[in-house]
Amino acid sequence: MNRVPVKSSLIALALVATTAATTALVLPEATAQSTTAASPQAAPPPQMVTGLPDFTNLVERVGPGVVNIESTIGVRNAQRTQGPPLPDDMPEFFRRFFGPGGPGEGVPGMPQGPGGRHGVSMGSGFVISSDGYVLTNHHVVDGADEVKVTFSDRREFPAKVVGSDAQSDVALLKIDARGLPALRIGDSRTLKPGQWAVAIGSPFGLDQSVTAGIISAVGRANPYAAQRYVPFIQTDVAINRGNSGGPLLNTRGEVVGINSQIFSNSGGYMGVSFAIPSEVVMNVVEQLKTTGEVRRGQIGVQVQGITTEQARGFGLPDTRGALVADVLPGSPAQKAGIERGDVIRAVDGNPINVSSDLPPIIGAMAPGTRTTVTIWREGRTRDLALTLSRLEEATASAAPTRPSPSPARSSNPLGLVGQPLSDRERSRLGLEPGEGVAIARVEGLAARQAGLQPGDVVLSVGRTDVGTPAELDRELGKVRAGQTVMLLVRDANGGTQYRAVTPRVDADQ
User: Fold this and answer.
1) Are 281 and 170 in contact (CB under 8 A)?
2) For 53, 137, 289, 459, which has the most beta carbons within 10 A of its beta carbon?
3) Active site residue: 118, 124, 138, 139, which one?
4) Does this model's pTM top 0.70?
């Protein structure tokens, strides 16, 4: 969270004002006469540019309901709110953004305690009901000791955090006030790329700033954050630090989203912004009002996308769907008969085109909901009924001990040298007894290009489970040059994923 140097901004404004005053004193006589001749009674000149959108009416009506959010984070909460650093070498990633003086930058004059930096973060928000309910982002108020809401007419109110949800990045606030200008909530499901959108907020602490653009895409997944239950709205509306929590509006002045993130390799606006759809927001709001927390359903699978090579390896007609890489023991998916290697193609008739479509659909359902999942398995589709359990975010993952290189040479076409796993290593990885073979060495080029490396654990070859190096060699021995084989692999971080490998005809496979 960056702090805008207020002093330099005031100096810049002062210089502008001084220049304007000086110019007024030295205007030539002809210019002064021309200015005097333009009396208020004279007819205004005709518009030279027509047909462009004019958002003035929208802003006048909606603007009073958009507020500035100021969160004070003290020493006692600084450590909890200090998240892991973002990787500097990542060329592009999603960023959340704050106004000046946010945690992570600190505030001059405030001591830097042992728990990390702390200070004041500034974001945006908007009123959703006349009796004082206000929405903003979770990351704007996360860990705050005090939250203050300021209206455009400079009225200030202390706010209580009714509830906050990190997964959706939505926070519901309550202030003690009545007769407030509430914004209307629109239907984000009707949005289409190319439609106009407007944002109002407080970038860099500049209240009531208005920007406009178009909807660039809908249903975007976030590959770099934990918000897998949010199908983001992508826009080219200019969004910067301090816009967090402000409304994204359609041309009717209805809220269709909450501005939350940007996609940037510099931390500043680069033409790609993301908002949380109003459909997701209002689902969260109702749950926060009722219980103070958000409960999501789960089926208990780990899924991945499908490449063309993987589709060929599984005999799929296309790349649509979510490939099941792992099934949690005792989960609704396991009870319903879903297996590794299945491809989820639809939920209650709603198509799953890419793997990121699945979590928002399932997560929007309450635990205990009965649903039907359509899967593809071995050349045909089948419908499986199941009842959702409650999503538990706390999952333990421990990296396995990397096996020492084996002196043995590979005896399979992929050039993989297997090594047995100990019971302790299997327990650490969450594997059953006799499940999985560690990779000690990768000799084949195709396997290396597929991302396989020592320390990975092969769980199955195609749909056949393997538990010993001999079983791994036997199954891989059936693979012919040019044939794509699917390996289910658990990596050193505990993630499970299918890898498609196609050994080449030449000797250096």
Assistant:
1) yes
2) 137
3) 139
4) no
